[in-house]
Amino acid sequence: MASIGAFKKTGDEYYGEIFTLELQVTGVRFTPVTGRGGDNPPSHLIYVGRVEIGVAWPQKTNDGRAYLSVKLDDASLSAPINANLYKDEMGEDHTLIWSRPKPPKAVRT
Q1: Has residue 38 been placed in a domain?
Q2: Which long-range contacts (CB under 8 A, 24 or more apart) does 5-12 make?
């Protein structure tokens, strides 16, 4: 797991930055979604300036802690980034955590 971002929550929005080897951006904001339909609409859209770079859905850990499941995708990225935004245990900050997806298990025939 790697920390790739730091955010502060103000009301229902999150403001911060994301830094990876491929993506270095400040002024990232998670804004609440209103009036979206569908089976599993996101709770937040993620922007840098006027450009939408991702979406987030509310989730809970096995021990009941709330977090946001985040998907970042943009034409400048070679592949989408899936990460989770967790509230830090000490304080009001939030950390965006990325971990490499596990490869699919081989199917026996």
Answers
A1: yes
A2: 5/83, 5/85, 5/95, 5/96, 6/93, 6/94, 6/95, 6/96, 7/85, 7/93, 7/94, 7/95, 7/96, 8/92, 8/93, 8/94, 9/87, 9/92, 9/94
Q: How many domains does the chain have?
A: 1
Of 46, 17, 91, 34, nearest to 4 (Cα)? 17
Question: Percent of the chain at pLDDT above 90?
Answer: 71
pLDDT of residue 103: 78
- Residue 109 domain-assigned? no
